[in-house]
Amino acid sequence: MGRVEGWAQGEVDVEFFAIVADLAGGPTELITPGGEVAWTRSTRLYGQPVGPAATAGCPLGQVHDEDTGWIYNLHRYYDPDIGRYATPDPVGITGGVNTA
């Protein structure tokens, strides 16, 4: 029997949800088979999470740091309050002009 992150396949297959994504591919809603909204995530203009689901479902597998409010993107931190990265791009200027 297959497993998904510690769950048996039988547990995973109990109920399916449709995922509604934003333009960047991040999840914004989960819809039940009956058409009800089971979960929602809202963000401000630059990605700052809003509401009770603020720490779940960051775009593209990113991680929201509750202490700083920043979003960790594997190699650097993004500050959604100002809409810019708070740390330099690890590839330097090769990554573009918005490096810090």
UniProtKB/TrEMBL annotation:
Source organism superkingdom: Bacteria
Record-linked InterPro entries: Rhs_assc_core, T6SS_VgrG/RHS
Chain ranges passing through the membrane: none
Protein name as annotated: Rhs family protein
Provenance organism: Austwickia chelonae NBRC 105200
